User: What shape does this take?
Amino acid sequence: MIATGIQKLDELLGGGIRDSIITDIFGPNGTGKTQLTLQICVNALTNNGVILYQDTTGGFRPERLLERVKAKNMDQKLLDRVTVGRITNTAEQINYIDKILEINNICLVVIDNVTDLFSFEYSRKLLIHN
Assistant: This one.
């Protein structure tokens, strides 16, 4: 279980984000989804976890994660346990999931954003074929 860092949300979730379960965090732009995800990453690092982060939007900023680690007075070397992939198309996104099998002690996979590339590529293909 990985705490979100938001007491009421953790209570609603029965303690936080459950292991081996897909959790979809969704909402309009600018509502804090990425901030929440980064906090969950930091909390996973406190449990000695390894994180696989897929950035499909180009919005991942390592300095934001570093700020959160520093704010909790954690060892910055913990960030070595975060593997970030900049994903630019759906084939890469699907293939990157195979990394899960290559990484030991993985406790969290973040895909930010799981649908954007699919929506873009497949809507474009539909327009081209029509």
Remarks:
- Strands lie at 50-55, 82-86, 106-112.
- The chain has a mean pLDDT of 86.
- The domain at 7-129 is CATH 3.40.50.300 (Rossmann fold).
- The longest strand covers residues 106-112.
